[in-house]
Every structure is written in C-alpha cells, then in structure tokens.
Known about the structure:
By secondary structure, the protein is an alpha/beta fold. It has nine helices and eight strands. The termini are far apart.
Amino acid sequence: MKDKIIYAISDSLGETAESVARATASQYDKEPIEIIRVPYIVSEQQIDEVLEDAKVGGHVICHTIVSISLRNYLHTKAKEYGVQAVDIMGPVLNAVGTIADTEPRMTAGMVHKLDQEYFKKVEAIEFAVKYDDGKNPSGFAKADIVIIGVSRTSKTPLSMYLAYKKIKAANLPLVPEVPLPEELFKIPPKKIVGLIIDPYKLNNIRSERLRAIGLEAEANYASVERINQELEYAKAIMRRLHCQVLDVSNKSIEETSSFVMQLIDRNRAMDNKQ
C-alpha cells in the first residue's frame, strides 16, 4: 500500500500544524496516515525540498507559515508541483482582520511566547502557595520578594496578586511569641518589604475575621492592646532588617503591589549594573 503522508510545516515550532494534521488523520482511522512535522521553515529552498518529496509521493502539506513572502511562495510553487497545500492560519487571520482594529504582528512563534508567559505565571502561583505564611523559609532565597508583617495585613492576597504578575513572592507573619527563621537574615534587605497598618483599622479587620469564623470579636487576637504590641514588635524587626516599610492602612492590593513591583524593578536594574 502506498504511504500517505501529511507534512505539517511552519516557520516556528509547527505544533499547531501538527495538531491539526493529527486531528485530521484521526478521522481516517481505517488506514495509516503518517504525520511529518517540518519546523523552522525560513527559506524557499526548504519549501522546495518539502514540495519535491510531496510531489513524488503524492502527499499533502498543511502549514502555519506566518511570513507572507514564504506563504505566497509555497502556494505558488504548490500549484506548479500539483501538490495540495492547506493554509491553516491564513483564512482565520483574514477573517479576524475584518473585525479587528489592529494589524496582526505576522511574527512566528507567538503562541510559544504566550505559552512561556503562561508557565511563568503558573510557576509564580505555585511558588506563592508553597512559601505562603512562612511554611517553608528555605524558599526566601529563591523569592523575588519576601513580604513580612503582622497577621491580617494582606500578605497572602498580595503574594497571590504578585504571582499573577509573574513575580515569585514568599511571606512571613511576624508574631512576638514565634522565633524568626534564620533564613530571613540571609537575604538582602532590598528583597524584603514590611507591611504595617493603623492599629484601629487592624482591630476592625481582625474583629470581622473572628465573627466570620464564629468566635468572639473581643478575643485577645483583636484587642487594640495586643495589636499595638504586635506592631511594635514588627517595626523593631523591620528596623533590624533595614527593609522597605509600607503602610497599607488605606491602600488597595493593587496600590501595594504597584509599589512592590517598582521596588523589584529597581532591584533588578541595580543588579544588572553590577
């Protein structure tokens, strides 16, 4: 039986073309159809080689070539060779072009770049979960930023918000009765941000939290006296660390994260100069 081949070619990785080719071949499950992926097409010579093989064997080509010149060359030559060459992206690009307000980039590998950004975000989210609430201080050295502060100063929400910006954030609650991990003193002060808050605002936040979980709002955890004790302890630690301190009393998570991201950008700029 004559071999049947679909050449999935692209000026990038060719994963999209191959996926479409495999989905198509699966509809012909009573006969074997081979898929050959040919990635990184950058020259007319490469196209000629694929076309010659396809012509000799009577095979089919499907492609996701973004380059207009290479795409036009492929289709012109395919007609000369009598080879079926199916443009996967072209018709969709043209259709979307009728409703879009901008021009397409026409740059190969954009899906792969988007995938990389997605995986960076997932990695940062997993990092924030793993190193949340001081559970594993060993992660401090690998963090882009370490957030410290007393309970209910939005350390965890801030860490997660930063993770969605692809920033690896760890956080540590400061409690007078709990010894500080030695790892905190091994990282540069510029990588630490201390969060403080107005004691009466924190009193309201903690009281609401206690009510939400069915406990008495007047518990010591929410008392102004206890809060002031914790805040004084936290400020002393921050002075000892020589870290940046941010008052979050009247700041949203977005405002706080903007400050932290600016700090990280400055740190990276300084590191690049060294």
